[in-house]
Write a structure and sequence with these properties.
Elements lengths: L4 E4 L4 E4 L2 E3 L9 E5 L5 E5 L9 E3 L15 E3 L3
Antiparallel strand pairs: 1-2, 3-4, 4-5, 6-7
Protein name: CG15199
InterPro entries: SVWC_dom
Subcellular location: Secreted
């Protein structure tokens, strides 16, 4: 492990202290990862959305960074 970094073992990812990383091309993973000053990882996933009548969710696009990788709510009548 690198000094002044947090290590996210599940992704094999080193995150600089007091900084964000936006992983891409990770299967089923769409989030940003932050390494706090006390070496704790903070992970922000996509917000939950309620499905409205006449709407649908797009698929996640894991090739894009967070939050662009999140599914989008699309409504035909909007």
């Amino acid at each position: 492990a690198l000094t002044d970094h947090c290590y996210y073992e599940e992704l094999g990812l080193s995150v600089p202290l007091n900084d964000f990383v936006y992983p891409v091309n990770q299967t089923d993973f769409c989030a940003n990862v932050y390494c706090r000053e006390d070496y704790v990882l903070m992970i922000k996933h996509c917000d939950r959305m309620q499905l409205a009548h006449g709407c649908y969710f797009t698929d996640n696009n894991y090739t894009l960074p967070y939050p662009q990788c999140c599914a989008q709510l699309v409504c035909e009548n909007a």
